[in-house]
């Protein structure tokens, strides 16, 4: 029995110490460390700022991506239509060239009317002009697609002579002069 009383006394003493410790903890509420609280608040603010920044970047990226997809779809449609036009014109040019060759052969044999030859040559010339216009439109489409990439690489604006529009205009003027010079000998020789 004496052991039992000794155990009971030890348990009671341990319970008393635990009660005193709890009283001390309850009497003095724990105050958080001010540095830790400030650091936690700073981290919360930084996290909120980063979350907002990620959200705005994601929205910006989504809008840029949508704009690029629209531009790509537009350009794809434009290029598809342009390709179909070019194929149609090339086929027409081949047919016109063949017809003109037959008319020239018939004329050489003395069977053709010179006015028919002139008409065929004029039609061929117009077809070639249309083909050239389509090719210029293709080049313009490529230049339009490349313009934003060039602008990103160049910090300053290009001179008026270096712009795609100026090159297209000068090329169109040159081609008009070339076609006028080509047209005179053909129509003059057929008469």
Provide the descriptors you would attach to this structure in a database record.
mainly alpha; 191 residues; 4 helices
Structure description:
The protein is rod-shaped, with a radius of gyration of 44 Å. It is built from four helices and no strands. The C terminus is likely disordered. By secondary structure, it is mainly α.
- Approximate strand percentage: under 5%
How confident is the prediction overall: mean pLDDT? 76
Low-pLDDT regions: 179-191
Give the oligomeric state: single chain
Main sheet specs: none
Helix and strand pattern: HHHH
Class from secondary-structure proportions: mainly alpha
Radius of gyration: 44 Å
Outline type: rod-shaped
Number of helices: 4
Could you give the distance between the termini?
146 Å
Give the helix level as a range of percent. over 70%
Tally of strands: 0
Question: Can I get a quick summary?
Answer:
This protein has 191 residues and is mainly alpha-helical. The chain has helices at residues 2-27, 34-108, 114-153, 164-190.
Task: Set down the secondary structure blueprint.
Blueprint: H1 2-27, H2 34-108, H3 114-153, H4 164-190
Helix pairs in contact: 2-3, 3-4
């Amino acid at each position: 029995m004496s052991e039992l009383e000794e155990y009971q006394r030890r348990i009671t003493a341990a319970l008393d110490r635990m009660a005193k410790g709890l009283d001390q903890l309850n009497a003095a509420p724990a105050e958080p460390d001010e540095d830790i609280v400030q650091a936690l608040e700073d981290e919360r603010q930084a996290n909120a700022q980063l979350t907002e920044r990620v959200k705005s970047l994601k929205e910006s990226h989504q809008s840029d991506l949508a704009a690029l997809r629209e531009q790509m779809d537009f350009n794809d449609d434009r290029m598809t239509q342009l390709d179909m036009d070019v194929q149609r014109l090339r086929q027409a040019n081949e047919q016109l060239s063949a017809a003109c060759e037959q008319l020239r052969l018939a004329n050489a044999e003395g069977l053709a009317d010179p006015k028919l030859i002139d008409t065929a040559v004029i039609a061929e010339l117009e077809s070639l002009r249309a083909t050239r216009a389509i090719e210029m439109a293709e080049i313009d489409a490529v230049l339009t697609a490349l313009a934003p990439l060039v602008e990103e690489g160049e910090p300053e604006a290009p001179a008026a002579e270096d712009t795609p529009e100026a090159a297209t205009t000068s090329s169109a003027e040159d081609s008009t002069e070339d076609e006028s010079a080509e047209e005179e000998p053909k129509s003059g020789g057929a008469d």
